[in-house]
Amino acid sequence: MPELPDVETFRRYVDATALRRRIVDVEVLSRRVLAGVSSRRLRQVLRGATFNRTRRHGKHLFVDTNGSQWLVLHFGMTGYLDYGKERTRGPHDRVIFVFAKKCSLAYVCPRLFGRVTLTASVEEFVEMKKLGPDAMSVSAEGFACCLCGSKATVKSSLMNQRLIAGVGNLYSDEILFQSQVHPLFRSDRLSVAQATQIHRDMRKVLRRATERKADPMQLPGSYLLPHRRIGGSCPRCSGKLARRTVAGRTAYWCPACQKT
DNA sequence: AGGTATGTTAATTG
DNA sequence: GCAATTAACATACC
Fold it and tell me: How far is CA A71 from CA A20, A34, A50, A80, A147, in A?
């Protein structure tokens, strides 16, 4: 799941379920998802604390734990959160934050590509990971700056978390479809008008997707994602969509609507 | 069985 | 150094 709209949805989910509740225990069921923190330290820092507030930068979710540490959650390709009272444990639960009254929040990650850690500062973490500005917060000028310095294809640049944080394979396809820009177009050859358009469409697409709880199939029929499958047709011109590996991922686009 | 998958990163190649 | 490609990670689905 997790591109920016998914992680923003998870952030709101934590806000709605787990804020200000005393953490009575932390169960680490898979050490593999811990990055640079031991289960003992995670438990020691979180036990007795509360989740105070949440932040998001790109695909990373941060939860202020009351003291000097933030819990950092990244979801890989298949991670998500599941809150419940007396919830039954699933096979892919990796870390469980246990609250009072048998309530708990599970970090579930079937493929184990996600990571959980702690950081003293969100800004330091972002700098350490060399993440670019958040896709929903970056200004048009900042966005153009990030893209136009890259010789990579525009799809690759959009997905490069060091340039812009938050856009992945699915939404990069959607953004370029909206802007009618070909995914293989070189970033540094975009006109100012094109970069401005892509910036506007990026924010529009991510906002829309977040409104729809990050379910790509719930996007309007005029969007690419509901049609993004083998044999799918362009909602604008009805032509067959093109499909090819770009930047190591499967890209879909309309060869008629998205020129060069 | 083999191909595919919403992510990241290291190694390799041009 | 940059960019593209490939493999690797671990699992599920068609």
Answer: 14, 11, 11, 15, 30
- A227 is written with which tokens? 């049609």
Residue numbers in A 6-25, CB below 7 Å of strand B: 6
User: Residues A66, A19: contact at Cβ < 8 Å?
Assistant: no
* Backbone torsions φ then ψ of A235, nearest 5 degrees: -70, -10
> Beta carbon of A96 within 7 Å of strand C?
no
pLDDT one-digit tens code per residue, A105-114: 999 999 999 9
Whether A246 sits with its Cβ under 7 A from any strand C atom: the answer reads: yes
A161 touches strand B (CB under 7 A): yes
pLDDT digits (tens, 9 = 90+) for A167-176: 999 999 999 9
pTM for the structure as a whole:
0.96
Residue linked to tokens 């959650």: A73
Q: How far is the CA of A191 from the C1' of C10 (A)?
A: 42
